[in-house]
Structures are given as structure tokens and as C-alpha cells.
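Researcher: Going back to the complex we discussed earlier. I've cleaned up the inputs and rechecked each line, so this should be the final set. Can you rerun the prediction on the complete assembly and write out the structure?
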Amino acid sequence: MKSVVFVLALLLSVVFEEVPPQTSKITWVHNNAQSADRQLPETVGAGCAFLDYDNDGWMDIYFVNSGPSDFFTPATPLKNALYRNNGNGTFTDVTHKAGVAGGKFGMGVAAADFDADGFVDLYITNYGSNILYRNNGNGTFTDVTDKAGVASPGWSTCATWFDFDNDGRLDLFVSSFVFYDKSQNPLCTDATLKRRYYCVPRLFKPTPSRLFRNTGNGTFQDVSRDSGIAAHPGKSFGAVATDVNNDGLMDLFVANDTMPNFLFVNKGGGKFEEIGLAAGVAYGEAGRPRSGMGVDAADYDGDGWQDLFVANIDHEFFSLYHNDKELIFTDQPGEIAPATQLLSGWGLKFFDYDNDGDPDLFLVNGHPDDMIESRIPRVRHKEPLLLFENTGRGFKDVSANSGAVFGKMFSGRGMAVGDFDNDGDADVLTSNNGEPPLLLRNHGGNKNNWVGLNLVATKSNSAAVGAVITWQVGAVKRTRLRTGGGSYLSSHDPREILGVGAAAKIDSIEIRWPSGATDRITNLPLNKYIKVVEGAGQSKS
Amino acid sequence: MKLVLKIRFKFLALLAVAVVVSQSVYAQADIKHLEQVATLIRENKTTQAERELATFLRSNPNHPLALNLLGTIRAKQNRLAEAETLFVKAVDQQPRYSGARMNLAFLYLQKREPAKAVVQLKEVLTLEPTNTEVMVVLGDAHLATGALEEAERQYLDALEGRLDNAAALLGLAQISRAKGEIKETTLYLTRVGTLAADSKSPEFLYKFAAVALQAGMSDAAKAALENALKLRPNEPAYLLALGIAWLRKGDLFEAEKVFRHLIRLQPASEPAQVHLGYVLLNQKKYDEARLWLEKSARSASPMPEVFYYLGLVAQEQNDDAKAILLFEKAVQKLPNYAHARIALGSSYIKLRNYPRAKEELETAVKLDPEEPKAHYNLALLYARLKDTARAQEEMRIVEKLKAKGAGSDGVVVLPATPNPH
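Model: Rerun complete. Updated structure for the full complex:
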């Protein structure tokens, strides 16, 4: 009887299954450029993205790789990779044809249609200077970085597309990490190891992040200083754009490593005010800054206010900041804290993996120091993935029941969520430092009903960042704010999957666009993707 | 959290001395008989020893050796008043009986009456002026009274110019520590650690560990305690100290293992419950932490820390009203409890009762100006009140204090180390 119950439980549960390279045909492997000198940029890359670059309705994949820099000359050429989704579970490497190989020491990727021409573009962050690839709409891209003015030299990490001034155009926030070049690499070692290990970022100087305003003519204006962003040098690894005070203006939550996190509240008029300390999200207990890396935002408890999440390094615990309103947050990680005590988190996202309607949480982990096991007991260099289910009262660790992959160890970094097989449940892509990536197929998430939304803005920013989606199923009304950025160095499937649970119908969906317009849709088909055009409602399935 | 070290005094070790001193005075047959009784006591055959002594004392009611032995049994039984009467009677009968005087001195040390111990030990030293063990114990007694110079003199005399008397060196380490001489303390303790590596005395290893813990030498303490536990496995006091040593090393997992072991041995032990609760609290395993802390809170006289930790659990579980009640209970028990005041301030901030928060935090700063948590919470408070300048000033203080290594890391105050006396 017990075994029957167990099998039944397995059948009912949602499982993430590795799609091996033999199946997916994804053979690209991240090269972390690891050297005896242990240069810090080697240990933090890299990101990945789900994007539909050719508008065929299937999520393609982009990976970021290391490349030439002042401290690294690859023995053989390295490249970023664009894989076209063939729609049958396989992918084809189209990097060179598309012209998006990168060629720098890559960090992250942010995909969005910055020029609103209907084709998604790519912004690649690097150690060195960044690249903006404009999608030509014919399967190729053009490097328009110089024209656009978004090279942002230095060491950039994550990039976040969002519309801070609600002018309907996507602006760009670029996180800067520390001031670094190869001469800045001090000797970090100890008597036991007699070898270098990676220095902690505490030893390096912070740098200000940058904010670029999209002018609408293919160029960007650096408004870092005017906006107030540049007044706060940090060591930023992750950023998410969200609206923490429900004023319709997108704010920025920025995770810093070994420094206080920043919460930039959008005051309107192009100005931001940093309120991390007062909000209670800057420091850990006792006023100690933590090592913030991956971030995300979502209203996990359905109270209508955006909560925040930050992954930190081992022994610091990850933070789940509940939004107590009035720009005050309380760290309430619950079961997530003990589960992450020894872990270092990077890519992460709140998403509804089982389509029951509420946001769950997926975490990608890995310690940045490959020699950590000789230095700190029980902390591993490679670490497991974690999946937490939202129970309505908090988060429950369901990793052990969610697939064999959760029993494996990885040098996890980037993480993107997307439905690459268009079956209505969200799959996961991770990019691992110095390792092959992981493509994880969600099996069973679509046992619950769902509706997929492809939001097409006409007045609002093309990514509809800031849109508020409300869906009603019987007496239950759920709301989701469309955030920008998040995770770590990565970019997600732009579509929204709304979980309906076991309900046989969805009563209505309402989309409040950043422009202020509202579309309300009823009589929706279940278990299908639909296109919703701003101002016109449902277009077609 | 004060944990009193339970030193097992070496009453029986002094039997040999007692017998030697008494040989010329007492009948050989009696001495032989009492030596057999001493062996029974050593072998923990107390009932049989008591029976033998009762018979013997019926015919020799004032025999100092027998009185001393019965006193030893009573001391072992923790019937200290009776033991004291018996030792005193033995000394009255034979004032030159150094064994009984030593036992009396140990008894006084155990009763925390070191001045009385000093008197007895000085007498013993006049009888045995070259006995270095007595010198060390006299040093310990002086140390316990705070007479550092006298203590130092005794330890130095015991050393006789050589650095191989671990007990004397440990005494000197304690004196250096009391004087704030960090380098000297470390040097002495390092030497003691080397000498004690092969020690067969778990009591001494424990005592050394306690001092090493106080001096921040967690590794040395841990090693000594592990050795002590090899000699006396499952000794609760050693396990407790070992758990604390792991805590000091910041290894919550090992600390948790040790405290769980201790709880298995002594499920009702309040220190074990508090420490396990504390470790679980620091691992953010709040539900189980609360369970152990609540058990501890039900004891006859719970420590103020228990309420503080329970308050922290409530605070972390977002029940600040309950947390405040618990912190206030802790403060009632210990009005100078700065950490509880800080926690009160923090809860009042969360409840947006800023005037009360300010009051508690300012009190905390007065009580412990070097605690960064107090200043951090004040910074948070001022930031909420939009007083940016004062918030920044408090954060500058936090940074300065952290640079100095001030304050306790983590959520709560680290528990105190065992007291070597």
C-alpha cells in the first residue's frame, strides 16, 4: 500500500527533468577562464536567456561566455551562443549567422525590444564594456552599442530593462560591480592552502551603476547622475525593477555584495531616492551588510504589495523581505533560511511551477570559491538547486520530490524561466560556471489549468514591465505585477503563464498597462497562449 | 548565561598523604584497615565503605583518618555541611593533619569560600613547604579572592623556575587575563595546551578549556574537552563546554550535535535546553528552538536569556507583541540586559512605536555603548524618522565598532563560558 501511495505521489507531483545535450543538441559549455591567478571575474559568470528572437512562437536560448580581457587570452576562441528552438525539443546553434557571438569577457544578458520594432534585442554585459545587439528582424543582429551609447565601460553585471519615466520606452539599468583590472588582484591565500583563492569583493572598491534613458531614436541618454543612481556606488550583482509602493512608478531593488543593498524608490520626474536602510532591506541583522547576489520581486502572499528576495552567500541566509507597506520590509525567510544556511545563491525566480496560481521559488546555487571546501566546513563549491512551493502560509522545500536533478551539485549562476516546449508550464534554464548549462523540462506543471499571455504593448513599454495582471477564478482573484530584470545576469521568457489550478474556467483577466490603459478579457480558452494587444484586448490565440 | 564549572575535588588523592602523616601516631592495623576503606571509596563502593567506617568510628569516634574518610564520602554525596563538620573535627583532633586540611580547603573552594580555603592551605604549606600542588591550590584560592599578587607568587613558587607545571601556568594565564595581558595569556595557555595534551586528568583539561574559552582560544578548548571526554565520556559539564567551544568557533552544526547528545543524556538539563534552543535559533529553525526554550522557561528559576531568546523567536515569527512581553520579562530579571533592550527597541520599530523604540535603544546604548546592534537599530529608527544625518552618524558608529571587532556576531549574545572556579 505504501508503494502505491508513493507512486501516486510521484504521479501527482511536478518534476523537473534534465534535457541532456544529446536530446537538446545544446553542446555549448561555459568556460570560466579559471587561472592560477584567480582573477575575480572568472568566478561570477555567466547568464542565460530565453527569448524568441525570430518571432516563431518558440523560446530560443542565449548563453554568455567568457572571452578575451586584460587578464585572459583564450587558447581557442570562445563565444556566446544563440540556439534557435526547432520546436521539436531540439535547438540549433545560430550564433554566427545571427552575429551575436560577443567576443568579450561576458557576464549577463538582458533581452528586450528596446526600439519597439517587434523584434527582441540583446544587451550583453561584460567585464570590459557592454554590447547592444539590435535585432534586424531577419535572423541577424547588428552591434549598435556605440550609436546607442550604452557601452558602460567597467565591470557590468546584470542589466534590467524597464520604463522608469513611463514614456512608453524601455530604459536600461546596468549594474556595476567593483572597480577591477588585472593589477587590482591582491594575493589572497593562507598558510594551509599555499595557493591563491578568489579574493572576497570586500577588498575592492565599489562603483556606481548606470541608468540610461531611452530617447526613442535608437540612442540612450546617461541619466545616472541626474537620477541620483550615481550617487550610490555599490557592488551590484542583481537588480529587479518593481513597484514597491504601488504608485505606478517602477522602483529598483539592487543587491550588493558585501555592501548594503539599495532600494531606489522612483520619485517621479526622473529622480530616485535610495531608502534601503529605512526600508530594512539594506543590511542583515546587527547592521552587517551581506553578500547579495540574485534578486527577485513578487507578491508572494497575495496582499497586493511587492515582496523582495535576495540570495546571499553561505552562512548569511537568504532574505525574503515581506512588504509591510509604507516602504517598510521585514525579513521573513521562514523555511528558506535553514535550507540555505550553507548555500550561496545566484539565479532565482518567483514563478508558478505547478500552475496553482501562486508564485513559488526556484533557487540556483554554487559557491564562488572553488577552494572553499578546504576553508569552511560543510560548505561545498558545487551546490544543489532548490525548489520551494508556496503553501499560502510560507514556502516549503519540495526539492527532494521534484526530480533527480535536485540531488546533483552544480556551480550554478544564471537562471532563466521559460516554456521552451510551449506546453503551458514553466521550464528552467541555468548557466553554470565552467560547466555545461542545464535545461530542465517541467513535467506535470500543466496538470493544472493555465492561460498563457503574450502581452503586446502599443503605448506602454514594449516589454510591458509594470503591467498589472489580475485574473479571477471563481471567488479567487490573483494579481501579478510584471517586473523587469531579476534573477542573476539572466532574462526570462516574456510571456506570462497564469495558473488556474483545477478550475475548469477562468472568469476574467484584466491587464492594467503602464500607460494607464486597462484591458479586460472574458470567455478565455484554457490551456492556450493568447496574444493581448494593449487597447484592443485579446487578439488571437 | 553563567555556567558554573563543577570541579570534582580530589579528596581521595589526599588519602595517601593523610596516611603517611598519621603513620607514627596511629596503630598500623587501623591504618591498614582505613587504607582498604579508602580503596573502596575510590572504587565508588560507598555503601560498603560507609558500613566499614560506621563500625570503626563506633570504637574510635574521634579518629581523624576515619573522620576524614567519612567527610570525603559526604562531600562526594554533596552533603557539604556534614562533610565540613567531619573535616573540621578531624583537624581539631590532629592539627598537623594536612590531608584533612586540604580536603577542607577544597570544600571551601567548592562552596565559593576561598578566604577560608586560604587559611587552611597556608597551614598545609607550613606543614609541607615544598608541596607544589598545595602552592597551586593556594594560588587558585588567592585568585578566587581577587588577590592576584599573592596568587602569582604561589604559582611562580610552584613553577620552581621550570615551565612544566601546567596547573601553575594555567593560574598565571588566568592572572594575565585578569590584567588584560592578551599576549601573555595566549603564551601561557599555549604552553599549558602543549603540556596538557597527554593529561590524564579530565578535571584539569576541563579547567584549562574553560580558561581557554574565556581567552578566545576555542580550538585549544575544544581539543582539551575532546580529550577530557575520552577520559570521562558523556560527562555533562564537558559536553556543555564542548558545545560552547563549537559555538565560539561559529560551527552551529557541531554545537547542535553536542547539545543534542547532552539532551539525550540529560533531557531535563536547563543549560542543555537553552543552548540547543540558542543554536537552533541561530540556524533559524524557530519552531524547534521555541520548543526547547519553552521547556527551559518552565524550570524553577529560568535564566533571563531564555526569555530573550524566546522573544527573538517570536520576533522572527512576526509576533512582536509577544516578543515585547518576553523581552520585558528578560529585562525584569536583568535590568542591565542591553541585548534585551535592543530587541525591545527593534520590536517597537517594527510596530512603528518610535518613541518607545528610541527610549529602549538609548537605554541599551548607555548600558553597552560598544554594541553595534544598538547603534544599527538607532540608525534604522532615525532613517524611518527621516533624520538622515543622525542615521548616518549611527551607521558610522556601527562601522567603527565593527572595525574594532566589538559586539557579538549573529542574532544573539553568545553564551558565557563555564567559570573555571
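Model: Worth noting: Chain B has 23 helices and two strands.
Researcher: Good, that matches what I expected from the previous run.
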